[in-house]
Amino acid sequence: MELKLHEDRFFSPNQPQKNLAIQYYNLIKDLPIISPHGHVNPALFADPKANLGSPAELLIMPDHYIYRMLYSQGIDLQRLGIKDTNTILSTSDHREIWQLFADHYYLFRGTPTSIWLNHELSTVFGVSEKLCSDTAQDIFTQIENKLVLEEFSPRNLFDQFNIEVLCTTDAAWDRLEYHQLIRNSQWKRDIRPTFRPDGVVNLDSTGWADNIMKLSEVTKVDIHSYNQFIDALEIQRKHFKEFGAIATDHAVLIPFTQRISMSDAEDIFQRALIGDLYPEDAYRFSAHMLMEMARMSIEDGLVMQIHPGSFRNHNQFILNRYGSDRGADIPIQTEFTRNLYELLNEYGNHPKFSLILFTLDESTYGRELAPLAGHYPALKIGPPWWFFDSINGMRRYFDQVIETTGLYNTVGFNDDTRAFPSIPARHDLWRRVSANWVAELTIRRIIDEDDGKQMIVDLAYNLAKKSYNLEKSS
User: Fold this and answer.
1) Using one digit for the tens of pLDDT, what is the confidence trace for 253-270?
2) How many folded domains does the chain comprise?
3) 8: left (phi > 0), else alpha (psi -120 to 50), else beta?
4) Considering 132, 152, 172, which residue would you say is the last residue of a domain?
5) How do strand 310-311 and strand 330-331 relate by DSSP bridges?
6) Statement: the pTM of the whole predicted model exceeds 0.70
7) Are residues 61 and 32 in the same domain?
8) Nearest one of 407, 389, 411 to 464, comparing CA atoms
9) What is the pLDDT of residues 32-88, one digit of tens each?
């Protein structure tokens, strides 16, 4: 029942390749972590005395990777402490939630979730036994006792994890009060917001009208027209930049881009304000706003990130009963070459524009994304994302992307996580798989060791820092 992380985990069984992979990994394993895209709550760091809650609150209750697996085996989300919209009481005993999770931990064998969690349990909390039904309560107690210690405060863990930069993701109307508190506290760590305008630029977003009111309040712009809407967005982008923002983040179902006339934009916006949209309005307006966001990025220097292709909240039963973000987001087939044609032809050649694309449709890597990023100066490909943040997902990424687009049209790694303690585990997995891939290129005489040493440092650190303009802003 011993929990042991092998030093050569994830490397090839081929001994010469493994030996070289270990050498490459040792060059980068202690490099600082650049986390330029993620969803950790900045409130964790605003209060020096903040703690991470119970083991269940920390490791289970916020994690949609865990929800989807357990739900797929027929486990009701109420039993995981998730309240439904009818206010039916959920399980509130965190030890009971932890026990249920431990009883079913075997379900995660061979998945990234178990890789991350085993790393967290072992290296962060010093757990030396495998998590299972019999060990569940002892491990809960061990973690619980550590979480109340000062050394396990979010701020202290930030330092222990060797994080150099951490970017959060914040709504367009966010006042950034937690970022302000961090700044006021004189805690000199690099935590930056990211501007996410989905709730106001996607007209079919839940609560769109309320979100417009929030944007109006925070910017002090009475938003009654499309031009006032654009003014408010530009004001907020400037506000985010004052707190160190380096990027924007845009989620769309389909990455269609198209500029519409000012009069059409105004007409659609007015219909949205009175709740009387035509069927194509939201689709056309989102496409237009991606063009506008690209224009703004050229003007203010924020890197633009687009991650399309997720059919959100696919399970209507779960959405109606428990709300959004409960593990029911499913990838769809996505097309980029035609959808991005107008945006790339207007802005893709501009020296001040930087666009990073993510995808949930791996079939587009070799067919579309790698050729596009291998040509347009403004475009780079983000790392394997979401379902593909895994050993095999990373291997496929390297195989499908690099030969066509080149390593230096990619952006290294970002963890894209809400689970703060998992950040070192996710970066360690990327660094190990990267080392193994670079070792294979070296063994096959595609590159030499000098090239390999530079490539592995770039993959672990330099690419992310350069792609998000952190070299200039640090």
Assistant:
1) 999 999 999 999 999 999
2) 2
3) alpha
4) 152
5) antiparallel
6) yes
7) no
8) 411
9) 999 999 999 999 999 998 899 999 999 999 898 999 999 999 999 999 988 887 766
